[in-house]
Batch of 4 targets.
Target 1
Amino acid sequence: MSTNLHPMLNVAIKAARAAGAVINRAALDVENVRVAQKQVNDFVTEVDQASERIIIETLLGAYPQHGILAEESGSEYGNKNSDHIWIIDPLDGTTNFIHGFPVYCVSIALSYKGKIEHAVVYDPSRNDLFTATRGRGAFLNERRIRVSKRTQLKDCLVSTGFPFRPGDNLRHYLRMFADVTERVAGVRRPGSAALDLAYVAAGFTDGFFETGLSSWDIAAGSLLVTEAGGLVGNFTGEADFLEQRELLAGNPRAYGQLVGILGKYSKFAGVDDKMGVQAALKQDTAGEGAQEA
């Protein structure tokens, strides 16, 4: 552990690496990993659970009075009344993992009185460690990282996540996806929101947007982005995003332009914008019907 880092960040790194070791061992024989389905297209494995256990044990071993908010066990462990809450996704990208597709990570963030103070995103398959502490910058493997400097959306590479749960409005998303795709150099869908945000922070991509995300998907990654000089918010550009289930991140210039495209699709959009989107969706549906006829 580094003596230059905040002690709480060092403990989070220790927890993330321990979880990563569990994941890497399981990845050697992924076909024998037991998989359960929480709901359609939403999976949990024994590896998620084992990874979460070792993270919680490590964190509470060092800070027994802290609280825990974890994807699989919720607030079952730790002190629910603590000002310090560890927000944990033990294996972000489970669907990728169970298919042997090596894009997944461990995500750990520490919230103090509602603000994210420390963040770790660890990619065990590449041994890439992204870290950040509020006010101290963001790092990849101890090297300082910054968001990209691209200023024109037509030159930007943007990542996203497709809706996959029952009840998600796929048609609404596809129109939003088309609006972005037409204006950028490329769109990617890696399948791990925490890594998507880490890649924005490192300048590998210029922006990221997705709906339906939970706080454990984005808590650590959001601090990485802001500490790397980027912006994070909802689709209308408001910074209060952690519990809103829509997220946009990017370098400052890309972010501003993406707000201009995505704002009308936000659940916080004005009535006129929402009516315009609905009219466009109806037009799409009518067009598809005419083609089929």
Target 2
Amino acid sequence: MTHTVHPPPAARAEPPPPARGRRAPHAAEQRRTGRRENLAGYLFMSPWIAGFLLLTAGPMAASLYFAFTDYNLFDAPQWVGLKNFSDMFADPRWQKSVEVTLKYVVIGTPLKLVAALGVALLLAQSRRGQAFYRAAFYAPSLIGASVSIAVVWRAIFTDDAVVDRTGQLFGMNAGGWVGDPDMILYALVALTVWQFGAPMVIFLAGLKQVPRELYEAAEMDGAGPWRRFWNITLPMISPVLFFNVLLETIHSFQIFGSAYILGGQGNPCGPADATLVYTCYLYQQGFENSRMGFASAMAWMLLIAVGLVTAVLFWSQKRWVHYEENAR
């Protein structure tokens, strides 16, 4: 019996080794170029980095330390642990500031957003003088946070002023809102609603992105203005609405200047603490009473509260915010 011997398969030719001697200088040059580009980038970023470290990160770290100390801005801080937080929760005026702030946020933020959306719907329609109206409605948001506007607003709502006289024409009792503990907070809310220009511009940009074909199809099916608004406009601008709700809620928690000035000379934060918002009481404790450790604890508690509210809003967006597919 004969056996056929098959020749071994031909050895596969190995590719020649890479010419490392010629590529090394190219790779080294790339590394040097990358280092130079990174250095240039960090150089341009250095003003922001320095500002962040000196004006944001540094003060935040210092305030976190002061929150656990007894510090009056003049003597060396003394470590007290959680005493500032326990004193804060037991302080009736702190509880009052939380109550006033929540009331202001719950009332002022929705009214401001409703006004902004309503005006944006009107300005989204083509009409003469549209640019002028947009600028006119946006202007209060530029000047509304100034001290001078708060002083003027206080003068408008004092006794026998414009608002008081107008109210008397409709049978309302005489008396300015500023001196009334039950009404002064609503004067502050009115000032906030008057500054609806910034969210209005954002709503207007969102309305411009809604396809007109959807409105035309809904109109052909017999849908009225309210159904078109509820079933088309709101779902399509829900991401913009979520952004405005988030932004305005955070801003409402941070209100200070208007509330402090509206209270008046010698009576900051309103009669009977009617406009004692959280930041106003924080300012009083830190700079008027020289309790900087207590004020730092209040500031970190505010940060935690705003963080929790933000987390709840992000969690809730799954139920009412509608994004386009693959847009998130």
Target 3
Amino acid sequence: MTSQTLNLVPFVDVDNMMRLVHAVGIERFLQELSDYVAEDFRRWQLFDKTPRVAAHSPDGVIELMPTSDGTLYGFKYVNGHPKNTRSGRQTVTAFGMLSDVDTGYPLLLSEMTILTALRTAATSAVAAKALAREGSRCMALIGNGAQSEFQAMAFRAVLGVDRLRLYDIDPEATARCRSNLARFGFEITACASAEEAVEGADIITTATADKLYATILSDNMVGAGVHINAVGGDCPGKTELHRDILLRSEIFVEYPPQTRIEGEIQQLDEDYPVKELWQVLSGQIPGRTDTAQVTLFDSVGFATEDFSALRYVRDQLAEHACYQDLDLLADPDEPRDLFGMLMRAAPARRSA
């Protein structure tokens, strides 16, 4: 994949992202994407790291998520507005860009609404592979909205999860999730409560959208040896787990300065000890150390994961032409003559 001229940037719109996922195959896409995510976590110390730049409002949040490994620069624009579903809009939408650090020129512009769902699920699976008990095959999915099927597919692709226990306060969401996943060979149980959903589960994934302190899981619902994948808490004032669960779990996070503001651990003291996922994946510290241990991945999403996703998509475009060239950059024949290029583009004067 090469652009013919410097002004053209490959653009992956929504249709092309869907084409790309189908061309690769969704399970292969998630498996390979998880490999990119894990690889970049192992390169963690190379990256510029900063908490996302957030603009909060009573109805939601708009965020910018930048990072660089010194060779490539990436950023994502993303929102989170739970009320949007009432007007037929997505709760989360996003787009992102990957650029060349050496020249500053963009290399890729991409939709990231679908891609964020894929990378969030891939990251969850990367963490669970390191933290869940070996042989974990049954997952409770509490919150059956837009993220739920992606989580199920990633856990299937990476860990071999084949049994799902679904619950949502909206039975229609559970029915839709069950229908969407039916053809992939899961054994699926629709549950009448969160308490029922966690029965017998090796992994509990919470992925709810309400922007408030909530108790999706209470302490008595979490048995020994369970791995919790807490996805829904992702901004100040929004959590899903009772504080007592945190106090008896081994907690793993992406980037502590961000997670302490946005994650489940915002409920704890600022110096409460947590472990970083990159240290587990790079072999510096152990993950799960006991089959009876409760492990918690306090997932809020971090810029390196979006970087990994953009990097993966760009690499796939060499084989799958699922993009269009976007005339994004002004590129005059003489780099210093931008004004001249503008004037030469004026329509010819009509003679009187």
Target 4
Amino acid sequence: EHSRPSPLPRPPFRIHASEAAPAKSRRTFYSPPTPSPLPRPAAMATVMQKIKDIEDEMSKTQKNKATAHHLGLLKAKLAKLRRELLTPTTKGGGGAGEGFDVTKSGDARVGLVGFPSVGKSTLLNKLTGTFSEVASYEFTTLTCIPGVIMYKGAKVQLLDLPGIIEGAKDGKGRGRQVISTARTCNVILIVLDAIKPITHKRLIEKELEGFGIRLNKTPPNMTFRRKEKGGINFTSTVANTHLDLDTVKAICSEYRIHNADVSLRFDATADDLIDVIEGSRIYMPCIYVVNKIDQITVEELDILDKLPHYCPIRRVFTCLLDMCGFSCIFPWPLKHFLLSVTC
């Protein structure tokens, strides 16, 4: 009799502990667990976080001649990030900061900009006769309400814009729509509350500047021209205290510009050079309308009188329609002062 050969021994194998307990579990060969990918904080950081990091670094950097080169480079990076924030390239990013759909009409357009509940709607109602809802709570106006002022044959369109909040330039509180509509105006009226801190003026200016609006400024008197070769050629007709060749090269290299002619005819700063390179800045006049001055003292009004480009008004607007002028507390009628700038 022939005996059957003994079966070959099976190769050893391992099973997972979780599969050994059930009776019907299938035997599988052991495989080590896949390590989780390491986080990439630099690549995954949002644009807002990058902006905040640069602003923090700029606030901690001491301003002097030794740090001018570094600060100029940081300002160029900050301008590029803000442009990326305002004009997103990805789909579904909310558009490039489109404003309210209001048809431009008349000889000039004036926008009322300010924080909520400072009297913008009441000012529009009294000056134009247009109805804009007025209430004691904030954010009464949720859309742009236009009105028209007729003066000596000139037709001025006045826009009542919703109140903005701090961080409007970053998209908070429909800030992009409000400031985008303000960019289409010829004059901006920043309405301030006399009983609120005067620091609100600087906060609103910061929001508008973050969106490329320069108030009561003229375009920089400089020439910037790109060329094919030759490197960066920097010339100036005046003594420069803010810019030098190294700073100009650093700012241009941030924009990947390696060949250009830069000619200065005034003592320019790094911000002026960045504005010229960006080419999307808007320069417009601005009037600071200080409202509710009937709730402050004469001494406080004397302090506000040092504010440039300002016009005080009261909550009682009956005197605004008096074309002969105000009382002794009002140096100019608002209509005369406004229309002398717009027309």
